Amino acid sequence: MKRWLCLFISFIPLLLLTTSCYGLQQINELAIVTAVGLDVGKAPGSVKLSVQIIRPADARGQTGAPAGGTGQPIYSVSAEGDSIFDAIRNLGHFTSRRVYWAHNFLIVMHESYARRGIADMIDFFTRNHELRMNTWVAVTPDAPDEVISTITGLEVVPGQAVDRLFRNIQIVGLAPASDMRSLEEAFLSPSVQPVLAELKLVKRGISNKKPEEHGSIKQVELAGAAAFNKDKMVGWLSSIETKGAMYFLQKLKSGIEVVSCPQSKDQIVTLELKDIRLKVTPSYANQVPSFDIRMKLQADVVENDCGAPITEIREATERTLKEKLALHIEKAVARAQHYHSDFLKLADVFRNKFPVEWQTLGTDWNAVFVQAETTVEVEATIESTVLKAAKQEVK
Amino acid sequence: MRKIQITNGMFVAMVVNLIFAKAIGVTQGVLARSIGQDMWVATLLGTLQGAAMMYIAYLAIRRTPHLNYIELGDLLLGKWFGKLIALLIFVFYLAAFGPVMITFVYHLKDYFLPEAPYWLFTSSALIIGSIGCFYGLEVMARIALIGSLFIFLLNTLIIIGSMKEFDIRNLLPLLEHGFPLTAAASLHFDADWALAIMLAALILPFVNGAAAYGRKLSVVSILASGMVIVIWAILEGAVLSAEVTSQYTISCMKLARNAHIGNFLQRYEMIMIALYSFSILFEVMFCIYGTSVSISKIFGLKSHKVMIAPVCIVLGLFGTWVVRDHFRAITYLENDWPRIALPIAFSLPLLMLGLRMLMRKKLNQAVQSQHGES
Fold first, then answer.
1. Mean per-residue pLDDT, A209-230
2. Strand partners, A218
């Protein structure tokens, strides 16, 4: 009896905890953010923050068909402040709900903001307990508020559409899969530098009502990259440089290369790259580091416009492919050296192989890295002609 | 023969639960700040040291497996010495409540309920902990057993959710700061298994066949703990990188927030926290048990249960004071706590072993007379 009484008395205070009053967040009182844009504000040093907030009632289903709502699945607004948090607080002057970050897909920064420095952004979003660490981060040359409110692809919510674009990176391979986790890792790393994906608006959409106006609707394109030195953006990477960098940065499932036919530069053969492996071996002599970069891959012929059987052009095509891929890698390395930014993670490889030398070289790695010599060797083999027979008689 | 009996599996589970909660996150953050990517090596070194010390802790009571350290102290040098040991154990568990609360409160408050007041967490932990403690060691041991199953599930979830981002380059180069510095950093993990040493000092006599299996049990319990903890050390280093791990007080939550199984299952840190709850609540329970048992010995009380409420008040005030200020909490965690825990955990087993060897005859006579009386 005494035991039951003790237990009963012990449970009374627990009742107070079951009211769920602390940290109460009703879903209908939240402004669920799905994309964030950051730009420099009008006042010097200020921040312009744009958010894409989802309207749950209008974003239901596959089409976002209105159900008594406004018919617009998103609500985009912007505010300025001295800091990011100040700008968010200023959003509260006109948004009726509390901003909620847990479902944010994307943070996109304008080039000018990125060039000014993104340390405040990294600090704010990694300090925030609501944000996901796999939120995508990108830089854009266009207005971030326009990028986050542009409906792209088949998705109703633009942030979700960009999320899908990022998820396909391993196949498309035209921009790095830069998320908060990888950005924070590179930013804090004593050896490597951050590299973020590039998002830009391109006129690619075709209006169903006016199909003759091809390219009248803007779409968000994920291609290219922005290189950083510490927290400041130092420049863009071209599509070829980005392709070359991707072999260092991502585990690519596949890739596409279009190469000229051996007998005619006007005709092409399209190859799908598979089983791509890159190995970097560092060495150190005469106070200068060097890197031996070897890439090994297989390729399938997915389109042959050469008018000749693959068996005849196989070796020459392999040679052209090797040259082209080696060129991509060389261009990526050259661009990294040009920017004094080791976003290719060569420093990690060097540091792991030469930890003692790293103690002295690491303090000024970006300068040392510029002097580094690289050799690139690509081993590419065409092993499949897909459905067609790999025979002399078949073109 | 004691009325309460704990199985060997329960003992191992108690040790694993007692060390696990703090060691996977809070300690790894401290280790990353001290030694960078070699935090997993420091954890391994700490595990080996812990296994050795646990063995010494067992050796101290090998001849008298029915006695805990306080009772052994009574027999060796009289009641005042027993009370002194009880006071040491009390101070140890009171001090241990600081890191335990840092682990418990910051997990819940900083990541889930930032608006809730500190006292809510400390008081709710103490209410639940005191209920477990009131029902005694067997109930706590069963909770630890369930907690072990949850730890296994938690580890499985974190491995599956993190492997995609696993980058072995982040764990290299090995021993970059040299072996001596890595070994010195392992002292922070030593402060975790110190809890297990003091647990053994109190409850080894309750373990079935402690005399026969104590040697194996003591070492296995620490090795098992090390094994489940080092998984987190490796994952935090390889997935987050040592630099990122070092930025956070609760670095395991950083890893947990990042974990995802495909695109479908994301942000399941709440599930992981639920699995983690048994381990952290067991830590709270055992701090209450350790302080209440030791203080009741100091005051010469027969049952520790009457002291549960008073020690809860002391622990609650101390725990809230520690966690209220993040600056104070991190200073206490990194500087004060190891300075309290390590001297007690290292010296007490060695002292008891030394005294036992020096006063072998007196101890044998006392044990024989006890057997004669019984």
1. 81
2. A203
Alpha-carbon span B142 to A246, nearest angstrom? 52
User: Which candidate, B312, B318, B313, B314, places its Cα nearest to that of B337?
Assistant: B318
Name residue A305's amino acid: D
SS3 content of chain A, % helix, strand, coil (to 5): 35, 30, 35
CB contact under 8 A, A129 and B114: yes
* Residue owning tokens 């920064």: A109
Between chains, do B115 and A181 touch, taking CB under 8 Å as contact? Answer: no
Max CA pair span of chain B: 69
In angstroms, rounded to a whole number, what is the distance separating the alpha carbons of residues A47 and A144? 12
Counting every residue, how long is chain A?
395
Q: Which residue of B has its CA nearest to A163?
A: B263
Residues of chain B in Cβ contact (below 8 Å) with chain A: 110-117, 120, 123-124, 127, 130-131, 134, 165, 169-170, 172-173, 176, 240-241, 243-244, 247, 254, 257-258, 260, 263, 266-267
pTM: 0.89
Q: CA A48 from chain center: how many Å?
A: 22
User: Tens of pLDDT along A182-206?
Assistant: 999 999 998 899 999 999 998 876 6
Residue (of B35, B47, B45) closest to B171 by Cα position: B35
Measure in Å the smallest separation between the Cα of A33 and chain B Cα atoms.
Answer: 16
CA-CA-CA-CA torsion sign (A338, A339, A345, A346):
positive
Pick the residue of A8, A129, A131, A160 with the most B CBs within 10 A to test the interface with B by mutation.
A129
Residue B346: name the closest of B201, B227, B181 by CA. Answer: B201
Task: Note whether A228 and A117 are within 8 A (CB).
Answer: no
Among A221, A100, A109, A106, smallest CA distance to A159 is for A106
Whether the CB-CB separation of A385 and A314 falls below 8 Å is answered with no
Record: contact A189-B247, CB cut-off 8 A:
no
Res B5: pLDDT: 84
Report the mean per-residue pLDDT for chain B.
92
Instruction: Choose the mutation target among B258, B264, B308, B312 for the interface with A, i.e. most A CBs under 10 Å.
Output: B258
Neighbours of B23 (CB within 10 A): 29
Cβ pair A7:B131 closer than 8 A:
yes
Handedness of CA B280, B284, B285, B291 (dihedral sign): positive
Please provide the DSSP assignment of A242-260 as one string.
HHHHHHHH---SEEEEEEE
Contact, A336 vs A342, CB < 8 A? Answer: yes
Residues shown for chain B: 374
Q: Hey, CA dihedral for A292, A296, A299, A304, is it positive or negative?
A: positive
B344 closest CA partner among B27, B82, B96, B78 = B96
| Pick from A117-121, A313-317, B147-151, B314-318: least confident | A313-317
Terminal-to-terminal C-alpha distance of chain A: 92
Tokens of A387: 């459905």
Could you tell me the two tokens for A249?
A: 């940065």
Residue A240: per-residue pLDDT: 92
Cross-chain residue pair B127–A13, CB shorter than 8 Å: yes
Cα dihedral sign, B166-B172-B174-B175: negative
Q: Which residues of A touch B (CB under 8 A)?
A: 6-7, 10, 13-14, 17, 22-23, 102, 126, 129, 132-134, 167, 181, 184-185, 188-190, 345, 348-349, 351-353, 355, 358
Choose the closest CB to A167 out of B258, B263, B266. Answer: B263
The second-level CATH assignment, the architecture, of A249-395 is 2-Layer Sandwich (3.30)
Angle of helix B210-235 relative to helix B26-35, nearest 10 degrees, comes to 60
Is the pLDDT confidence value at A64 over 70? no
